[in-house]
């Protein structure tokens, strides 16, 4: 039996795409392995959001050369966002002649056929089609424990001036609501306890059959019976609306947890980024969410060093970060993406970028730590997700509002909703103990 290994880079959407690749390869009776040496097929599911993601993939592909020399029958596949950039396939072929199959982001469903054909004919295959092509109906081998990722839409129409995603993933296409609902029901029947809805801008979801929007989708998901949680990512401030906050507030299933990337706190930078909201509008959304759902976990993405960012722009971002009081924020240094408008703008000095990111990370860490301290003494419902890497007999899970908690437990706790009392906080990590009361009864 042939063994395969998938190496995934990038966002949750890519992680989920790897679950589809695994589903297809398992249907072909190939077997998953975590060992590179034992693998007969190695799939690189790549990302190109920033230069370091791309360099990591290039480095790892390059590192296969000696193994490929030893093991002539090894099949090497490169797919994902990197391959969909202009000229990427040619560049990959020139740099790594030992790569056997190159597939575009919208050709994942053909990975089984491509591998079968390659194994028979041993001729290199490149298949990169238009991003308007849909890959629906692929089998999935879910690998994220208690959580099932569910795509609600593909692509992006926003063209933020720094971002490569619209070029490599194509235009926005929403999946029909009835298909999403039946996928969710299937995942729940299979025992998953948490559903995470995926899309680059979930707030602009529009069902092509009845034109219903994201709020309507959430309302229908909330009506599905059983005890489970729902999260969604990513929200875009320009399309986020109060109706969504109201549904979250009134639902036991939709978690009090919103990922709302702000990118910058400077209005001139936001304009140059084509984000289509202001710092004031963003803070107004946050204030409204907090007024309606006081314990809502709000996380964000923040980018430093966008072309033309001045010291004042940076301090506007710092000011926003302090006011927004995020539970957590992913901080990035702007990375030039060829083919995007920002690549042609005047760039910020790398030393200044480094100084700013260090300062920002320090400030956000202090905010996250303070937020964690506030949780000490409280009892939360936690969905036990997995073993914890922090030590023996330790397990981890999340509160409804997205805080990660580590506690002592048993293997049987995985997949259960437990009541956990928070005993201590170290930086943003929380540690707690199980209380007597369990809350895993069916609703
Ligand atoms: N669709 C989502 C997320 C897209 S990618 C959104 O609109 O927020 C995830 C994050 O990567 C972005 O939020 C942004 O902060 C970051 N990112 C995107 N392009 C980047 C670039 N060229 N350099 C650095 N960070 C980038
Ligand atoms: Fe990129 Fe902007 Fe689309 Fe997000 S909304 S994927 S940052 S273009
Ligand atoms: Fe995701 Fe990276 Fe592509 S963030 S959409 S895998 S460029």
Q: What can you see in these coordinates?
A:
The protein is of the alpha/beta class and 443 residues long. Helices cover 34% and strands 23% of the residues. It is built from 13 helices and 19 strands. A six-stranded parallel β-sheet has the order 2-1-3-4-5-6, with helices on both faces. A five-stranded mixed barrel has the order 15-16-17-19-18. A hairpin with a 6-residue loop joins strand 15 and strand 16. It starts with a strand and ends in a 5-residue tail after the last strand. The model has no long low-confidence stretch (mean pLDDT 96). FE3-S4 cluster binds next to helix 1 and helix 6.
Topology:
Blueprint: E1 3-8, H1 12-27, E2 31-32, E3 41-46, H2 51-62, H3 65-70, E4 75-80, H4 88-95, E5 101-103, H5 111-121, E6 125-127, E7 147-151, E8 153-154, H6 165-169, E9 173-174, H7 177-189, E10 194-198, H8 214-222, E11 229-233, H9 242-250, E12 257-259, H10 267-272, H11 279-292, E13 297-304, H12 311-324, E14 328-333, H13 350-375, E15 379-387, E16 394-399, E17 404-408, E18 417-426, E19 429-438
This protein binds S-adenosyl-L-homocysteine (SAH), iron/sulfur cluster (SF4) and FE3-S4 cluster.
How far the N terminus sits from the C terminus, by CA atoms, comes to 43 Å
Small-molecule binders here are: S-adenosyl-L-homocysteine, iron/sulfur cluster, FE3-S4 cluster
Helix content bin: 25-40%
Enumerate the spans where pLDDT stays under 50 for 5 or more consecutive residues.
none
